[in-house]
Amino acid sequence: MNIIEFILDLDWKKIVESILSALLASGIIGGFGYLVTKKITRDFRIAEEMKSYGFKGVVAKKKHSTREIKKLCKNTKRLDLLFISGIDFFSENRTVLENAMNNGMKIRFLCSQIYTNFLSDLEELEDKEGLRKSDTNISIEIEDVTKKYSKYIESGQMEIRYYSTQYRLPFILAYKRKKNMKTTKAFLRVTLPPYNWETNFVLIGERKTTKKDDFFKTNNDEIDFISMMEKHFDCVWEVADREIDREQEIKNTNFEVKS
């Protein structure tokens, strides 16, 4: 048999079918691989972009455990806290926070001014959704926190100011320093009324620096969410009331007595 006869005797139909099948399979595998690679590349790019803005992660519906608060307060020079009342945070973590302040940590706490329309509206929203007991009062919660920590307020280890403007997302900023490393940890809770403290997404961030600059200086050179939180806190802190509005408290008490 010569070469021509050999070629003519080949089953060209099967050969073509095999080639097409192989090409189709490799095309599918290649296309799938391309899509997977593209998704991984995109996710990596998004992760890197989020990291460049200061984001470290996201957690859904999470309250801080005692262990986490202990870790948060370790080597911490100052905590900046922005809540509505902070009653759960300060009640559940009282021992940890007091021990940290006894060891030198300072706290700046921003909370709502008492007996405002904002708090009344918020209580009504939460009550309708079954998220607040009808006999509870946010203003009383704020006063309770103030009384519980009066010792540290008087000594200057803790300072409270009271904002009276719009709703604000609760967050925590922890300023740490260990040897030559300065670390800022941030926890921004994305929660909107009527949802409360326990129903939220937490954006977690961290910024480290070894620069010999002012420890509490806001980082104005970079646009990141930690710097935005710092700027927001400082701006509200400057305009917030330094004392509870006692006149409003008296008016509310008189109203309740008459009722």
Pick out its properties.
Endonuclease, Chain A; 7 strands; 49% helix; disordered C terminus; 259 residues; alpha/beta; seven-stranded mixed sheet
- Helix amount, in percent? 40-55%
Spatial sequence of strands, sheet with the most strands? 1-7-6-5-2-3-4
- Just give the CATH class of the largest domain: Alpha Beta
Number of domains: 2
Structural class: alpha/beta
What oligomeric state do the depicted chains represent? Answer: single chain
Strand content: 15-25%
Let me know the number of strands.
7
- Taken from the alpha-carbon principal axes, the silhouette is globular
The overall pLDDT, averaged over residues, is 78
Element-by-element helix/strand order: HHEHEHHEHHHEEEEHH
Contiguous runs where pLDDT drops below 50 for at least 5 residues = 213-219, 254-259
What is the CATH architecture descriptor of the largest domain?
2-Layer Sandwich
Strands, helices and their partners?
Layout: H1 3-9, H2 12-52, E1 55-60, H3 66-73, E2 76-82, H4 87-92, H5 94-102, E3 106-112, H6 117-128, H7 138-148, H8 150-155, E4 158-163, E5 171-178, E6 181-190, E7 201-209, H9 225-239, H10 246-258
Parallel strand pairs: 2-3, 3-4
Antiparallel strand pairs: 1-7, 2-5, 5-6, 6-7
